[in-house]
């Protein structure tokens, strides 16, 4: 029974935190989260905090679901591990593969990984393998977008478009190209949104023509960019992207790591955005974060080619199809279905969140509040300025770190809200009730008020 201070000292001496300045954190001490229930997390000092980020976009069914713990316990007691390399497999991984196929029309097969990053590494291998099998091995380039997040492995970070990650890691690896993201606030000032969506999609065609269509294998994108700041593209964007990819016979990969399993009010984000991918990466919500699991849903065009003609796929992870992860995923999907969480987000709680976010537009700090399903974002603006048809705001100087100031007010006042620069974002658990959505919105407004007091001073 160590004290919080003792634990914090051990933490800063031994634990390098992801995406964290460990030295700066040591001065302050990490907040130690010790338990959670429903939509609430509690730290070791007893502060109860509304988790507006579902952990890291993953705890879709909320905390404290003993069914998931029971499923893990049963499976661990019976068979904690076996691999799927030796022409062997396990019952939970078979049943989960079949369940995922049932939830994904046109995707009869799945490749399992342990995380979303590994899923995107698998995508790179699968795309190149597919085009080799099809006799077009030159089609090895994958086009992605700036500010996308596709994970932290070498391929995942290369596919991603976070320039600060590239700089630190000597990335991207060869064979990956990027185009600008469909962020209206940044690139579409004053334009009609739908016209901007088509313009942003046309950057893909420009890039394909620059590289030569015969060299391009796939385009990858998150249906709604998440870690980049919840960038919700105009409705015209994905329709146009799909048309362009089909025109040049380029595979479409939807990175569904955040958007999958109900986050946008549909099983898959691509369904909500109205396009049909050839491959879909998933992770997070498949187990609601209770156990690590990821993978790639393989559309029938690719699946049939690689299975019928491709021979052995030289790729795999020790934990591909981990039986405990798969048992937890099955129990998790059962909860999502039984409680109708996808439908509830689509019809009840998602629209309520959207309405509440739109109402934040009257706040003196808030520009461009937007929500879709259970993701939402807004920009903290120095001056809100202009009309609704253009961003028209003046941003804060980045060195002020206003987003981080707001994030701290949120934590101090019982709310997890993430800051991406000066964009504040939420992605709450899908199990939220209507009252809990209202409570989330109340807390957001309160924390914006506290931030406004600071920046006005
Ligand atoms: N893809 C997207 C869209 C993500 O948001 C993430 C993680 O946040 C990943 C991939 C990487 O997943 P993981 O952290 O499980 O490797």
From TrEMBL:
PROSITE patterns: AA_TRANSFER_CLASS_3. InterPro entries: Aminotrans_3, Aminotrans_3_PPA_site, PyrdxlP-dep_Trfase, PyrdxlP-dep_Trfase_major, PyrdxlP-dep_Trfase_small. Its cofactor is pyridoxal 5'-phosphate. CDD domains: OAT_like. GO terms for biological process: biotin biosynthetic process; gamma-aminobutyric acid metabolic process. One of its GO terms (molecular function) is pyridoxal phosphate binding. SUPFAM superfamilies: PLP-dependent transferases (SSF53383). Keywords: Aminotransferase, Pyridoxal phosphate, Transferase. PANTHER family: ADENOSYLMETHIONINE-8-AMINO-7-OXONONANOATE AMINOTRANSFERASE. NCBIfam families: PRK07480.1. Belongs to the class-III pyridoxal-phosphate-dependent aminotransferase family. This is Aspartate aminotransferase family protein. It comes from Derxia gummosa DSM 723.
């Amino acid at each position: 029974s160590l004290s919080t201070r003792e634990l914090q000292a051990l933490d800063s001496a031994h634990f390098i935190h992801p995406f964290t300045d460990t030295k700066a954190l040591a001065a302050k001490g990490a907040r130690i989260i010790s338990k959670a229930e429903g939509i609430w997390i509690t730290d070791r000092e007893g502060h109860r905090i509304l988790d507006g980020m579902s952990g890291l976009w993953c705890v879709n069914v909320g905390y404290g679901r003993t069914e998931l713990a029971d499923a893990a316990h049963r499976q661990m007691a019976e068979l904690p591990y076996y691999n799927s390399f030796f022409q062997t497999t396990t019952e939970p991984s078979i049943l989960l593969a079949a369940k995922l196929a049932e939830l994904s029309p046109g995707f009869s097969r799945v490749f399992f990984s342990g995380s979303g990053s590994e899923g995107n590494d698998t995508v790179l291998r699968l795309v190149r393998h597919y085009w080799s099998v099809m006799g077009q091995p030159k089609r090895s380039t994958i086009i992605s977008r700036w500010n996308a997040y596709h994970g932290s492995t070498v391929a995942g970070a290369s596919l991603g478009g976070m320039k600060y990650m590239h700089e630190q890691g000597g990335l991207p690896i060869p064979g990956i190209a990027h185009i600008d993201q469909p962020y209206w606030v940044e690139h579409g000032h004053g334009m009609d949104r739908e016209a901007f969506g088509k313009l942003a999609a046309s950057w893909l065609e420009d890039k394909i023509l620059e590289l030569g269509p015969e060299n391009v294998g796939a385009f990858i994108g998150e249906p709604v960019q998440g870690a980049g700041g919840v960038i919700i593209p105009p409705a015209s964007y994905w329709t146009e992207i799909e048309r362009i990819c089909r025109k040049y016979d380029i595979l479409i990969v939807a990175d569904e790591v955040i958007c999958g399993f109900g986050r946008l009010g549909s099983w898959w984000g691509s369904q909500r955005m109205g396009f049909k991918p050839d491959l879909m990466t998933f992770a997070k919500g498949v187990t609601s974060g209770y156990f690590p699991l990821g993978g790639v849903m393989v559309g029938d065009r690719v699946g049939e080619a690689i299975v019928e003609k491709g021979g052995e796929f030289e790729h795999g992870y020790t934990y591909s199809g981990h039986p405990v992860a798969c048992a937890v995923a099955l129990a998790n999907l059962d909860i999502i279905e039984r409680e109708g969480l996808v439908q509830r987000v689509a019809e009840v709680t998602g629209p309520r969140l959207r309405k509440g976010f739109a109402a934040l537009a009257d706040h003196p700090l808030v520009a461009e509040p937007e929500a879709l399903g259970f993701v939402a974002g807004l920009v903290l603006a120095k001056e809100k300025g202009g009309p609704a048809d253009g961003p028209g705001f003046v941003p804060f100087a980045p060195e002020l770190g206003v987003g981080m100031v707001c994030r701290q007010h949120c934590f101090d006042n019982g709310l997890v809200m993430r800051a991406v620069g000066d964009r504040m974002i939420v992605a709450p658990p899908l199990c939220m009730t209507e009252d809990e959505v209202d409570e989330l919105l109340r807390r957001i407004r309160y924390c914006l008020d506290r931030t406004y007091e600071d920046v006005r001073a």
